[in-house]
Specification:
It contains 6 helices and 5 strands; from the N terminus they run βαβαβαβαβαα. It has helices at about 10-25, 40-55, 70-75, 90-100, 110-125, 130-145, and strands at about 1-5, 30, 60-65, 80-85, 100-105. The longest helix is centred in the N-terminal third of the chain and has 15 residues, at about 40-55.
């Protein structure tokens, strides 16, 4: 499984550390091709990484100031379910209940705090229980503008 990772200038340092950690642990990691610099725009990174996630059926990790902007931008891309997560439990629930294929993190996390979150996200199986699948289908209908109450 490929893991795509991208960050704006604020998340660059933590992104590089997470990328090295993942590579050292045998993961196939693809970094953003967009140069990071002061004044860059997080939607650019979200767009690039999320499209790669969809194209190659991988997982994505996005980092910015809070993770909120990245998650909002990512969720505008059809087929992406991005969760802004702060801890391992949220990473687990995002994937096991909502089949998240991307997570967004704040650059303010330490590497020691980010690693268990990323490990949990990668290791967790996507949603499979009927109630979660039903809810994901409703989200897909909202995304496709076919949802009705």
């Amino acid at each position: 499984m490929k893991i795509f990772i991208g960050a704006d200038h604020r998340g660059q340092e933590l992104k590089d550390k997470l990328k090295n950690y993942l590579l050292e642990n045998g993961f196939d990691v693809k970094d953003s091709t967009i140069p990071s610099h002061e004044g860059d725009d997080y939607p650019d990174f979200a767009y690039e990484i999320c499209n790669q996630v969809l194209k190659e059926d991988g997982l994505g990790i996005l980092l910015c100031g809070t993770g909120i902007g990245m998650s909002i931008a990512a969720n505008k891309i059809k087929g992406i379910r991005c969760a802004k997560v702060n801890n391992e439990n949220e990473a687990f629930l995002a994937k096991s209940h909502n089949a998240a294929n991307v997570i967004a993190l704040s650059y303010k996390l330490t590497l020691d705090a980010a690693i268990p979150i990323v490990d949990m996200f990668i290791a967790t199986k996507p949603a499979s229980e009927e109630r979660h699948l039903r809810r994901i289908e409703k989200i897909n209908k909202i995304e496709n503008n076919t949802y009705t109450l």
